[in-house]
Amino acid sequence: MKIYLGIIGKSFAGKETVYGITKKLAESHGLKTSIHHFSDPLNEILDILNLPRIGPEGRPNQQKLSTVLRQNFSENVLGDVIMARAQADGADIVCLDGVRRPQDVVKLRGLPNFHLVFVNTPLEKRFKFGQKRTDRPIQDWKQFTAQQSAEAENKIDEIAKQANITLDNFGNKKDLKKQIETKIMPIFAESPVFLK
Question: What is the CATH number of domain 3-195?
């Protein structure tokens, strides 16, 4: 039975870094991993419409499109797409990045062997991470703090309370790896996928 990890955290919290470390550790045990982003369907639509999904307009475009889709179709529209992709995925460990809505967590809890992981990263550190990003770099502190009031970002604190695992991304990558080894790897060791 495969393992599903929902990785949550505010923008630039280091969710991709958590996935990268988890992937390396899992692969050292012969386990195949994959990742699906809640932003993937949004980016695919933005590409079709020839609208920017990276750079300064990328995040606002994703947020606007998400709101339009949810208001005109259903709150679950993106969650349904990601759920279907996750279930069809043949990897041993399927990571779901960017869970941002309580409804999505309710849906994902229906997956067998699902674990919610919260990446807790201080605001100042996230700002520094954001400045290093090439796909959607942050220009200044004012711009960054304004983005934190977006609807999707505000829901993360609520969802974080439901997390099975919290990773405190306060130190360096080595510290984060240590937490993944002690908090996430034991989940794999208890699963039949580890013994296959």
Answer: 3.40.50.300
Which of 81, 37, 39, 93 is CA-nearest to residue 64? 39
Distance of CA 104 to the CA centre of its chain: 12
- Domain map (residue ranges) of the chain: 3-195
pTM of the entire predicted model? 0.88
Residue 161 is classified by DSSP as: T
Helices 58-72, 40-48: inter-axial angle, 10-degree rounding = 100
pLDDT in tens, the chain (196 residues): 799 999 999 988 999 999 999 999 999 999 999 999 999 999 999 999 999 988 778 878 988 999 899 999 988 888 899 999 999 999 999 999 988 888 889 889 989 899 999 999 999 999 888 888 777 666 688 878 877 776 667 789 889 999 999 999 999 999 999 999 999 999 988 776 665 5
User: What angle (nearest 5°) sits at the alpha carbon of residue 5, between those of residues 121 and 32?
Assistant: 120
